[in-house]
Amino acid sequence: MNARQASMVQPATLEQRGTYVPFTTPLLSLGRVRTDERQDLVLVLSPLDDGEGAYIVPWKALPDLGSMSVHDRVLSEIIDERRAVTPPLMRECVLETARTGLAGPGAAIAARKAVALEQRAALQTQFAMIASLLMALEFDISGLLALDPGGDAWQQPARELLSGMGERLGMTASRFYARSAALARVIAPLGFAKGMDFGRFRRLLSDLTSLAESFQCWGEAERSGIGDCAIEAAELASQTALLADGIVAQFDKRTEDPRWMLVDWQREATMISAISNRLSWLLDGWDYIVAIWGHVLNEKIVAQRETMVQLMPALPLIPMSEVGALSEMPTIPSLPPALGRVRRGQIDIDMVARLELSKAWDGSK
Amino acid sequence: MTENARVETANDSLETLEKPLEQISDRKFREVIGLLEKARELPGVKRVLEQIRPRLRRVRPPRPRTLRRLFYVPAEDLLTFENSLEVPGHVSREAIALAWSYVQQHGDPAQWAVLQNDFGPTAGDDAAELAVGKRLWVWTGAILAAGLKAAGADRQVRRDLVGDRSELFPEMEAIAVLLRFGAAVENMKSLLPLKPIRVITPDHLLVIRELIQNNSGGNPATAFVLAMAATARMAVPAELVRHISQMQTGLSRGNHLNLTERLQSVTLAAMDQAAARIERAREGDPLDRADAVRELVQAVAAAQQGFKVEGQAKRDLLRLRASAEQAVLEIVVDAGQRVTAAIEGGAAAPLEDQVKAENNLLALRKCGVFAGAVGLDGKVNEVLGRVTQTFRQRSAVLLNGLSNPTMAPDGEAGAVEEQVYWVVRMLELAGNADEADRVRRTGMGLVRQQRRPR
């Protein structure tokens, strides 16, 4: 058993773990939002130093903790307005805030790019679904392929194809199109298993596996006590990736046959959405850890150690409700007491810059 | 092309290589590293490898544990890629490589086999590895010390030790000391926080005093090497040297003075190099530059506070103080000008220019933290105040335009919003978060009013 007793720190469910809030004020960084028993929003902060448990701060009291960055004031207002306690809602709030440029111009550009990519991903997913149906229903599309997509000459035969497909599935062309668009929106965050462009969760899952490898290598090369913590963090990342793989497999099975999805589309959209949501909860927070670690790897070893110490108490633990698929108890990384994180009231320019850079991360490297 | 010109061209190309190396994929990065490692002896290559070491650590699997790596451990904080004459008190990689090959050749092969055999199963067990290390260091330290003793009278031993590089003898002697007291050095490391140690506490000083007092045996040369092993763990070595000068080191008064003088001289030389590096990197990232200047300023302040220097050393210290002041002034003036110049472009400027403006502003703020140590906090505040005033004027124009529909700023609503957020961001980066937020609230309130259908 790890030094930190599981019962003291391990959340019971994903919802109880809360949703990661990417604040840029170091004092609030790596906190999680959830509701309390009165359904009021609270921020859950990991313990200081080697302390156990967590700090629960009422949302309205956040400004009293110290000077918040303007970015965080805006983000906290939007979260409060929309009661954004789920990862998808949080993502909307985060991108909207980042687009203002209050976390730097890089973050603003990355947010705009992310929104554009998501819109494109939904369209691509819809096209992929239609293409797969065309093949499954054995339509001849050789004539259509010879035309300029979207051009005048292309539109008429394309409409006819849609009508033909709708007819075969027992619905009108417009209903067929609307259903495929609605389904594409819920599928797009993962995308199809055989899709050309993986959805963002699949990319994140691949990044998480690389992160586990990176933590492991770094930990083995690091001779201080932080090295051992990094190895534990690698284990936690691997366990999370393993659980996520299981959810992705369920998703892929569910989205295997687009015909079935379109016929019973409401039920299927609900099921697919539930699987996708569960994955978003499980992976929540890891994207920022991937980004922060990705940036700091190009910095000096001292910055890497400081970052590892900062990240350690805030790693997304696997809740008890999710451990079923694991063959052993999930890892709970902890720092030796002497290396505990120190929260400072003063503004740490370097730390703020590092947190802001994580928002500008596009993972392209 | 002359040899010098060829070397300069190679150095120039390598400098331009560092940035792209940060951007290429891991796979390509590994390939380039493979090529660079083959060309390790070429001028500038070691520096490039040092520069990209952090990424190298991630991309390349950890190097296999070997007795050789274990042998290097007590000296690791003092190792340098540079020529050791340029970094006094340190140990060049060339010297330690020679020391390794000497002890390999002159150590009893049977004893090597025993150590190798005991080392193998220690993988993943730090305590067991340390136990083998302690035996290795004491044994090889004695071999090296015996060689160094014999070298005075025996030319062949001299050649075996350093080849034709007689200037490496002082480093070989330092390595012998570090090996002999390897266990004590490692014990010190385990009792101190991770390097760089930013705040030196009485507990830290106690650990360092014990290292020097219990192991130097009254020998100032040994005490110097052990003190260097401790100063290498400090963020501001001058700060520790100041404490050591007042410490009971167990040396005679004369030897203690000698130790202090040597440490001060080495520290001043390192500060001199830091000042030269800052001077050379004028066009670099302003934040990195501010960090480098902070280290110099802190070192100068610590040295001025605690070094008892006379003559040339005193003049050197005064010169360094002047260099530190000059470096702070340059950043402050330069950053102030660049930020002011960026105001014109505002939110519409290209990304790169916006990032530069932000970094210059942050560099200015960073200087505000340490400029007081060289009496320049007033100058920093003056420049920050001036740029803040310009942002205030800019925000006043924007808010005025928004509150008066007939004077509404040009452009689409989205562009106006961008301008408001930009000025809010700059006001915040200049250190006025609350004021920035007030501008944001007022500005966004007005933007919303503007958008309402009339």
Structural features, described:
- The complex is a heterodimer of chains A (365) and B (454).
- Chain A has 365 residues and is mainly alpha-helical.
- Helices cover 58% and strands 5% of the residues of chain A.
- Chain B is mainly alpha-helical and 454 residues long.
- Chain B has helices spanning 3-23, 26-38, 45-51, 53-59, 67-72, 93-106, 109-119, 126-151, 155-162, 169-180, 182-191, 202-215, 220-231, 237-245, 253-280, 286-306, 311-343, 351-370, 377-403, 413-429, 433-451; strands at 79-80, 91-92.
- A two-stranded parallel sheet of chain B has the order 1-2.
- Classes of the chains: A mainly alpha (365), B mainly alpha (454).
- The A-B interface holds A 67-70, 73-74, 100-102, 104-106, 109, 214, 217-218, 220-221, 223-224, 226, 297-302, 304-305, 338-339, 349, 353, 365 and B 22-23, 25, 53-55, 57-58, 60-63, 126, 193-196, 287, 347, 351, 354-355, 358, 362, 365-366, 417-418, 421-422, 424-425, 428, 433-434, 436-437, 440.
Q: What proportion of the residues of chain B is helical, as a percent range?
A: over 70%
Termini gap of chain B: 75 Å
Q: What's the gyration radius of chain B in Å? A: 28 Å
* Overall average residue pLDDT of chain A: 84
Considering residues with a beta carbon less than 8 A from a beta carbon on another chain, report the largest interface and each chain's count. Answer: A-B, 34 and 38 residues
Round the Cα radius of gyration of chain A to an integer and report it. Answer: 23 Å
State the low-pLDDT regions of chain A, or none. 1-8, 340-347
